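Input record (Table S2, row 386):
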Amino acid sequence: MLKRFLLTPGPTPVPPEVLAAMAEPVMHHRAPRFTAVLTDVVAGLKSIYQTGNDVLVFASSGTGAMESAVVNLVAPGDRVIVASAGKFGERWLQLNRTWGADVVALEYEYGTRADPADIERALAEHPDVVAVFVQSSETSTGVLNDIRAIGEVVSRTPALLVVDAISGLGATDLRTDEWHVDVCVAGSQKALMVPPGLAYVAVSTKAWKKVEATDNPRYYFDWTAARTKMAGDSAQTPYTPAVSLLAAQNAAIRLIHEEGLENVFERHRMLGRACREGARAQGLSLFGPDDPEANSVTAIVVPDGVDGGRITSLARDKYGVWLAGGQGAMKGRIFRFGHCGYFGASDIVVGLSVMEMVLAELGYPVRWGASLAAAEQVFMQSTVAL
Ligand SMILES: Cc1ncc(COP(=O)(O)O)c(C=O)c1O
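Output record (pyridoxal-5'-phosphate complex):
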């Protein structure tokens, strides 16, 4: 028997109330009961997105909703800007190239932010750009982009701002309408506290105009079909939805509302800060800028002389703790703690404790308990329940 802890940035742990909702008898999707669930979920998501825009629901992982953004907005030959600083930025590049976009790539080093001034310059240089694609939280590095500043720049042009907030939404403040985000993609399995399988997009009026003008072939991910079904007498989805996951999402949204969105963000601030302080107290280097709002993921540089792959495998196999390794170019060079969604102070304590034991076993000169002491001091200052 090995007790398991899921301390990764997706999938993330699921609260018992949400698991219980998922275990209810399966409902039919063309029935009033399901319409009530879908309507509640969409209303709840709008409050988390902080938007009055349409929110569409798809049965897919987050990448499906990313692809839906490209096929609904970008015709072959359309020029787009992709600001990429990690594995998921690269996914925007790949998706846009796959669908025939003419891509202006702003590629940044892993561990850095996209620079709004570069986006402004690229938009001025290419006034025909139809959309700018970027991540809010780049999960592969833990870095949070400045979506407010990017939104300000893009909103002064005809281009749309398309944000992948798959690991950001619900963990850090993201004001879809106020920050001029035209399309915002999210997934169920991160801060929204549901198993993988649901993806969401919030779509602005400006974006709908481009959808209407874009006649790419599309079927399952056709946003217009999704909007029409949502707006019918009884809200539905065009095809069989993931009914049990939606029941789970409804329960998770209730938990978020009970806690209060501001308190949810503050809890994430505390967890992120404790994780960063815990790493620093151990003499470890953080990967990426020191950002008090980058609270979905903490990426830590693998210390010299330590085998990065062994950190995660030892944590998993000996202590039952799933941490995330580096992805793509960062494989073996960083390891990551996820703390978006159903996470509390005790999860961070477990994670940091296991980190100390694993690093010690791999030859790092650990200062015993230093990470825990640093995290505890952060938690003691918290004004919200953790
Ligand atoms: C920022 C970001 N974008 C995209 C994805 C891809 O989502 P999925 O694996 O659900 O398709 C992830 C998943 O880790 C992510 O964190």
